[in-house]
Write a structure and sequence with these properties.
- The structure is a homodimer.
- In chain A, the strands form 3 sheets. Chain A has a 7-stranded mixed sheet, sandwiched between helices. Chain A has a 3-stranded antiparallel sheet with strand order 9-10-12.
- Chain A contains 12 helices and 12 strands.
- Chain A has 2 domains: about 120 residues, Aspartate Aminotransferase, domain 1 (Alpha-Beta Complex); about 220 residues, Aspartate Aminotransferase, domain 2, CATH 3.40.640.
- The first copy, chain A, is of the alpha/beta class and about 350 residues long.
- In chain A, strand 3, helix 5 and strand 4 form a beta-alpha-beta unit.
Chain lengths: ~350, ~350
């Protein structure tokens, strides 16, 4: 006899991550990974990590990494939480602040993981439709939301929101927690980290998966007031970030110059790709991420045509997104292959 | 203004892991780590891991590792769940099967993380007092428990339970989920993995943190029926186990011979230490883990005296445990230092 799981688990629809094929050599432009390898210092750090430290439990509080991040952002260490990818950081924020039936507000469209994560805690979802090019609309009464999560840049379209417009919301709802997910911020022209310093109802999330080229090691973090950070530490798994990932992330933050260069290459190639796609008659949304959303008539056809040509992009079968595909900015060579394949469809 | 966390989080008392001092060279016999380094093949695998794979997301389903574990245990791959340490595996089992107010049964004493984890989901706890030497008592009506977790060997005393006695319980409560935590099983004379094959209400948990000397990489797993495993996959973080840890764990399972030898050394040294402590007049519980519980009159005094001598052991300030300390089995040299320090107290 199978023991019954909780009602919530019985009703859950799990998140479906982008395809991660292992069997064939695709050009992988579907999960917003960075096409450039991590900084040489990161390899070096892992290889010389004192590997017999692997037998010991890792630092449960990631003190060294938090110290380095504290310098990078100019905030105290106890205002930083480090997690097993920003997946964990987001989940813990939802778990700490959403009781069953309370409302999480998301934008439509946005990162499709948010509603899935919130559902595991029985929260209700309210979608705020974005304007034509992905801008935030007026939101009349944000204080009815327990938590609101806003990605900036916001996938899959890629719009960025200014400190000023977010601050209006944040001030209008001081007991609502605002999570600003800046996973893609290093490809953008501005960021909102300062909001986490000025307001006690803001947590800004960052990740090592995108600009740092370290999706494989699973490190993300949140910056917020002490109260928020303490609550995350209260409910996380005891040793949530493994030793080698702590080593790799520390080395990555120290290699800022390398990463500035790869991010700037990606920004240039994004503008190049956007221009070419527009020439081909596609609609391209203004994006500040390492991806762009390109619209034709039938996104599924584009997706399938490209897949047949050995190129993976991301298609979302949702009313507002169905005409286009999200394309990760790869290397210039990958972009040229993509353009060739698109021209042949 | 600080947004309010959920009622559950407001009332939580977080788990306190054993001390992990970074500042001074202690002999560390307090967190049941393995004193021997991981197998040479594990180092090799990490160093040659194709480190630029770090830029890509890891396999979200750990297919390769589950394939290897499936061979090791003779169960199908889809009956194995791999997590970010058995901490994550246990948390997900609790989250999937315990609704607020439902009862988790634990033994008293046992691993102190269980009630902390269950409390994060609002579950109630019922403690079943163990017999004199840590044996399981008769449990009249186990079907009133939603979930029961039993460690075998069971820390901090170290008793092991037989398949036969556990099967009586499991059959008496077919809609209760029984979690058998075999973190320490490779130091014991028998295991209960077969129960997960014969019963749909059993999950057996294992870890790479103890016998595999890999506490730093955070990999644990559960074996159970498909229904249980599917529920865990439904609620886990999308990419819960990082790439380097998957590589290290695969290499570890292939180095069984090395690990058989280190485990057998630890078993011998456990018996040596137990004998010496008994000679010194301490009560030592029969343990099949890589630790023993030694009782005098005042555990805190023993703990403090040893700490002053540069040796860390674990003291639990609980009625039943307060007279003793839990000592991890270190190398023979560490054990001799411990005995010398104890003689001097």
């Amino acid at each position: 006899m199978n023991p019954e799981p909780t009602k919530i688990v019985q009703e859950l629809k799990p998140y479906v991550p982008g395809e991660q094929p292992r069997d064939m050599k695709y050009i992988k432009l579907n999960t917003n990974e960075n096409p450039y390898p991590p900084a040489p210092g990161v390899f070096e750090a892992v290889k010389t990590a004192g590997l017999d430290r692997m037998r010991l439990y890792p630092d449960p509080l990631c003190k060294k990494l938090r110290g380095i991040l504290s310098q990078k952002h100019g905030v105290e260490t106890d205002r930083i939480f480090v997690g097993n990818g920003s997946d964990e950081v987001l989940r813990l924020l939802f778990q700490a602040y959403l009781s069953p039936g309370e409302i999480l507000a998301i934008t439509d469209p946005t990162y499709s993981l948010y509603p899935v994560l919130a559902a595991t805690f029985g929260a209700g979802i309210e979608s705020v439709p974005l304007e034509e090019e992905g801008q935030l609309p007026q939101i009349p009464d944000p204080s009815r939301f327990r938590v609101m999560v806003i990605a900036s840049p916001n996938p899959p379209l890629g719009a960025v929101y200014s400190e000023e417009e977010l601050e209006v919301l944040i001030k209008a709802a001081p007991s609502t927690l605002f999570i600003i997910d800046e996973a893609y911020v290093d490809f953008a022209e501005s960021d909102c980290m300062d909001l986490s310093k000025r307001h006690e109802n803001v947590a800004v999330c960052r990740t090592f998966s995108k600009s740092y080229s370290l999706a494989g090691i699973r490190v993300g973090y949140a910056v917020g007031c002490r109260g928020i950070i303490e609550n995350l530490y209260k409910i996380k798994d005891s040793y949530n970030v493994n030793y080698l990932s702590q080593v790799a992330a520390c080395a990555a933050v120290k290699a800022e110059e390398y990463y500035r260069q790869t991010a700037s290459r990606i920004r240039e190639d994004r503008e190049f790709l956007a221009g070419e796609l527009r020439e081909m008659g596609l609609r391209v949304y203004p994006s500040q991420g390492n991806f762009i959303f390109a619209e034709g008539e039938d996104g599924r056809k584009i997706y399938e045509g490209l897949k047949a040509a050995g190129i993976l992009v991301r298609y979302f079968d949702l009313p507002r997104l169905r005409r286009g595909v999200r394309i990760t900015i790869g290397t210039r060579k990958e972009i040229e292959e993509l353009l060739k394949a698109l021209a042949g469809l």
